[in-house]
Amino acid sequence: MALVPSSPAVSARMSRQTSRDTGQELAVRKLLHARGLRYRVNVPVPGLPRRTVDIVFGGPKVAVFLDGCFWHGCPEHATHPKANAEWWRTKLERNVARDRETTEHMTATGWTVLRFWEHEAPGAVAERVAEAVVAARSARQARPPVRR
Q1: Is the pLDDT of residue 137 over 90?
Q2: Is residue 60 part of a domain?
Q3: Does residue 146 belong to any structural domain of this protein?
Q4: Which of 18, 70, 136, 148 is the least buried, fewest Cβ under 10 Å from its Cβ?
């Protein structure tokens, strides 16, 4: 079954939705930077095409995703459009499945994956991210060096 948006106007409006540099992303990144943490943004997911990580700490292998409540199916705030309901249900279910697959893929390849909802306070998100980065760096330094 081909999925078709309900109208060209809806399609155009939805395509203009911000997918990067959202208010929450900018706020969290500012707080992380103020803590002295350096990162990369919008990095392709290794081994999975057309997927990106919002914030990446490459050395300690920590990936941070800041998910929008509507697009990623927040259990508290997700809404379900009534117009073209089947199309939206299928679309949003695929987004959730893709998120799950991405998390599983990255975890299996040694990454710590952190996912947050857009409604979470940037300060609390930055705190949890900083803790995970420090823990990952400590664990990495505690490992004995590999001799080749």
Answers
A1: yes
A2: yes
A3: no
A4: 148
Question: Token pair 């306070």 is at which residue?
Answer: 121
Cβ atoms < 10 Å from Cβ of 69: 16
CATH code, domain with 132: 3.40.960.10
Separation between Cα atoms, residue 70 and residue 60, nearest integer Å: 30
CA distance 100 to 29: 24
Any domain includes 95: yes
Please say whether the beta carbons of 116 and 125 come within 8 A. Answer: yes
pLDDT tens profile 17-69: 556 789 999 999 999 999 999 999 999 999 999 999 999 999 999 999 998 88
Query: In what side-by-side order are the strands of the sheet with 52-57?
Result: 40-44, 52-57, 62-67, 112-117
Range of the structural domain that residue 78 is part of: 19-140
Is residue 128 one of the residues assigned to a domain?
yes
Name, in order, each residue with C-beta under 8 angstroms of 78's C-beta and a sequence gap of 6 or more: 69, 70, 72, 92
